[in-house]
Design a protein that fits this description.
364 residues, alpha+beta, 2 domains, 6-stranded antiparallel beta barrel, elongated, serine-type endopeptidase activity, TRYPSIN_HIS
Length: 364
Amino acid sequence: MTYNLAEKYCVRIKSNGNTGSGVLLPGKESFYVLTAAHCLGKNMPNVSDIVIEKQNDYTSEFRAITCVEIKEFNTDHDFALIEIDFDDEERLLYQYKLGRGVLSENEIKFCGYQGISINQYRPFTGKVLSVSDDIGCFKITLVGETFDQGGEDGHYLAKGLSGSGVFIYRHNSPFLIGILNSVITDKAWNDDIDCSSIKHIEEYISEYVDLSDFENLKQWNENLEKERTDREIEAFKKENSDFFEKLYRKNNVLYPEIAKANSITVKQIRKFLAMKDNIRTIENDYPILYSNFKNIVKRFVDQVEDDYSRSVTESNEAIDLKMELQNQLKSQLEALPSFTNLDLSEFQVIEWLGICTLNFVKND
């Protein structure tokens, strides 16, 4: 599932009677909106003539974004870069990356404001048809839909989408690769669109990922996972939760490598919270089953504290004890319906770690 959607970065642009779309963009030293130059008019307008607005979702009110300066206005390649100032830009914009080295047949997504419905953005899905990296352009086409609908010309229905940010997704994360320029042919027979790549604004970009380099992508994904894990651990710490602190301390004994301890802790917390919902369902819908489960757990508590909690010299010793305990609990829970076995045993061991019923400390 994709959580980081292209529409989060979509804006509407008005300038001297023209209405188009644009995309929010993080730069080296400031924040910008990238759009098609023709959305601003035939000639570069005064910055005071540009109105940029953003919605939190497609039905919400528009929020104005302050235009600071027009940094680029290029009619040859049809792009414009506007420096902006608006609230929460850092939190929003550093959630995606910029990409170069686009490959044909890559699936893309873009989102913009059609002229027939300028008060609501609309997302589209397509694919890259061809690329000319030398001159910084590429061509896309729609997939599964068409601009030519209800007897209306595609050119008319696509009007206003120029300037929309074009994203490729890797590992459920968006990479901005460029913007829409114009629909090809007046009737958009093939639903093809010319686009400009981010190559033209590289001097404003701090970094980008080469999407054609698989080793580069692999390394990026590993770094991304580490960043996400680090952020989640920090969020847990900020909650000052005794449960999370104790669970994290045990995992540092079980897994001496900090990166692995972090990753395991995050996975356990996700599982624990999900399984906790299952436990509540069992408690509400199957009270006898829940009572049987709690009775088995209660009989185990003294054994867990006396026989499994201890100081360990090697992390493998603690891991073996944890697995032995979970297997013993699992065998005791076999009397319960089989669909609950794995969830209940794993849930309970994580809970015991988090409340120190099951306790491991390093024997220094």
